[in-house]
Write a structure and sequence with these properties.
The chain is mainly beta and 464 residues long. The chain is built from two helices and 30 strands.
Amino acid sequence: MSETSGTPRRRGPHRRALVALLSTLGLAGLAATAVTPSATAAAPPPPSGWTQVFADDFDGAAGSGVNTANWQYATGKGYPGGPSNWGTGEIETMTSSTSNVSLDGSGNLRITPRRDAAGNWTSGRIETNRTDFQPPAGGKLRVEARIQMPNVTGAAARGYWPAFWMLGAPFRGNYWNWPGVGELDILENVQGLNTVWATMHCGTSPGGPCNETTGIGGSAPCPGSTCQSGFHTYRMEWDRSSSVEEIRFFVDSTHFHTVRENQVDAATWTNATDHGFFIILNVAMGGGFVDAFGGGPDAATVPGHPMVVDYVQVLSQGGGTTPPPTGNRDAYGTIQAESHDGQSGTMTEGTSDTGGGQNIGALANGDWALYRGVNFGSSPARQFSARVASGAGSGVSGLVEVRLDSRSSAPVGSFAVGNTGGWQSWRTVPANISAVTGTHDVYLTFTSGQPADFVNVNWFTFGR
């Protein structure tokens, strides 16, 4: 959320999240709560030639909610004014309660279906605030997440429908233009089967050029460990770099399904793809997809098994979105904080600091910003300073850290900051750093013992 006044409204302490949202077919998922699955420390760095445009690692305090700067909750039994039961026949009520959607404190998001004593089901569905994810003209888009499906199988899994998917931006606020506006299901699973389904929905329903409500789909078993017993990476690559556009789907390194532009008429493809998309994570209970595989949930279904999400990230390649040329930033000039090449958890707002412009704000534990190609030259830099402000509450403070080339690298330097007198009360804080030469990607990372926001940053620079 962005504010332009000098006193932006701050986010509360429950600020971390992962997306759990339901496909327009309906999604549901379960996973065991007794053991916390292992998670990677962070989303992997982009491969050469790719730029990270969105990421959430779901770092945060155990029991806290999602980061509402990145995600919004979809609650109830459908969108306001839209089809009932999310248009899929699923039976759960989606909530924003941390009993259904929460961080586990180990770098994971958990979306957990629950059943009360009366037999009523609740679960979680979240979606990105951003609706602009699409490949640049002549380029590519990659959307991926590392996920363990609900760790439940057999009769106990009846009715579970977890999903990681995307909807065309025109759907938001309309809710009656599906499937024409496009849906890309990167991961769907039902009934605890060791299968990932990937599907593109488009055209008209029922029937039409995309065979709705089934869509243009493919499936594969999870390689190695089953989908339920381990983490796997589920990925969609949307490629506009060739004469025939393609949307490809992967589980880990296995490419198992492709949808091509020439499989449908030009109008259908344009209506489904000529706009941005938003991302959804959710676990549904029951619904049309579940019914096709035996139905549920029923008395044998065991609640409380979450879909566990380690990270979600979006990468872009080509079309003018490739990283800036190596060495394009001068380490000894003023680097504006809002000029980042990638970020997680930050917001941009107007600043009252000298010179005006913008700062990044709402920075809390686990947030970061990336600045590519910072040239330190051959004479080592040994100092770092940043222009910061804080209106954090009593006892709330944290570290502003500098890391090189990877968010998992050890910091080369840092300084601590607490309340400076207000979120627009600025001061320049210096720190010593280990000697740095050459050209590096610089990460500013923000670490705190509390989940609350603790600092804004306007600019930073280095010195010898």
